[in-house]
């Protein structure tokens, strides 16, 4: 008999969240190690519909979840390093974006006690652009939001989370957050949004404050913002058309 629906947590590094309940369905997001979800409905086989804390919904394999059975302790920390090595973690490694907790000298992933076997992690100390630059060369992955593969909004949403800013998952939703910024007033960590020919927001990146944008397109890369055009640094070809620039604020109300 299947266990009752309830709150559950991901124990694997990064689990695909799919639009529909089958393996060939589009990967629209990921559930990262240590994150919790609310189980909403059972599907055929091992499929379960879940909701992430930010309200994002999708389908995943229930075998990649464990039920929450205890009150969790410790200070949560979202990892910022591209990869980090751990004992008692499936595969031995966790990517940037995974969530661990520290209680005294003890570390946890969900309800499992774990131990860092390389550098002890610490909260990221810097801005969104600072962190995104450490991810240069990470491959583009549709639906990805870890250090092992990003889509454009996955990169930006994780950068925001690491500096204490809560934003929606997708670029079109992120465009509704923050204050508008004039092109002459762009600062480092402002967020640039790009549109397709129909005017829909389809791409997002982070401004570095010197006329460049860090974004995930093929890979995490840096290209040049030339007026309304984003030009590839290697050949000057226009890749995206600017829709607008936003400035976000931290949870404490301070500008990023």
List the helices and strands and how they pair.
Elements: E1 7-10, E2 14-18, E3 27-32, E4 36-42, E5 47-51, E6 57-61, E7 65-67, E8 75-78, E9 83-87, E10 93-95, E11 99-103, E12 106-109, E13 112-116, H1 128-133, E14 145-146, E15 149-150, H2 152-162, H3 171-174, E16 179-180, E17 191-195, E18 201-207, E19 212-217, E20 219-226, E21 229-231, E22 238-247
Antiparallel strand pairs: 1-4, 1-7, 2-3, 4-5, 5-6, 8-11, 9-10, 9-13, 11-12, 12-13, 14-15, 16-22, 17-18, 17-22, 18-19, 19-20, 20-21, 21-22
Structure description:
By secondary structure, the protein is mainly beta. It has two domains: 1-121, Roll (SH3 type barrels), CATH 2.30.30.40; 128-247, Alpha-Beta Complex (endopeptidase fold (from Nostoc punctiforme)). Helix content is 8%, strand content 41%. The strands form five sheets. A six-stranded antiparallel β-sheet has the order 8-11-12-13-9-10, with no helix packed on it. Strands 17-18-19-20-21-22 form a six-stranded antiparallel barrel. Strand 5 and strand 6 form a beta hairpin. The longest helix is centred in the middle third of the chain and has 11 residues, at 152-162. The N and C termini lie far apart (49 Å).
């Amino acid at each position: 008999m299947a266990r009752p629906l309830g709150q559950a947590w991901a124990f694997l590094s990064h689990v695909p969240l799919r639009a529909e309940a089958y393996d060939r369905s589009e990967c629209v997001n990921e559930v990262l190690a240590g994150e919790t979800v609310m189980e909403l409905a059972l599907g055929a086989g091992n499929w379960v519909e879940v909701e992430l804390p930010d309200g994002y919904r999708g389908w995943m394999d229930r075998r990649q979840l464990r039920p929450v059975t205890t009150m969790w302790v410790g200070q949560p920390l979202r990892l910022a390093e591209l990869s980090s090595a751990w004992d008692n973690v499936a595969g031995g490694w966790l990517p940037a974006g995974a969530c661990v907790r520290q209680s005294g000298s003890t570390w946890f992933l969900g309800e499992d006690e774990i131990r860092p076997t390389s550098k002890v992690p610490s909260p990221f100390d810097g801005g969104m652009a600072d962190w995104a630059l450490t991810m240069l060369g990470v491959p583009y992955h549709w639906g990805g939001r870890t250090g092992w593969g990003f889509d454009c909004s996955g990169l930006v949403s994780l950068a925001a989370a690491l500096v204490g800013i809560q934003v929606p998952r997708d670029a079109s939703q992120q465009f509704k957050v923050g204050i508008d910024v004039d092109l002459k007033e762009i600062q480092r960590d402002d967020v640039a949004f790009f549109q397709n020919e129909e005017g829909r927001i389809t791409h997002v990146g982070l401004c570095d404050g010197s006329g460049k944008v860090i974004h995930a397109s093929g890979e995490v890369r840096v290209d040049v913002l030339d007026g309304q055009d984003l030009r590839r640094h290697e050949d000057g070809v226009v890749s995206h058309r600017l829709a607008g620039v936003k400035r976000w604020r931290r949870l404490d109300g301070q500008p990023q």
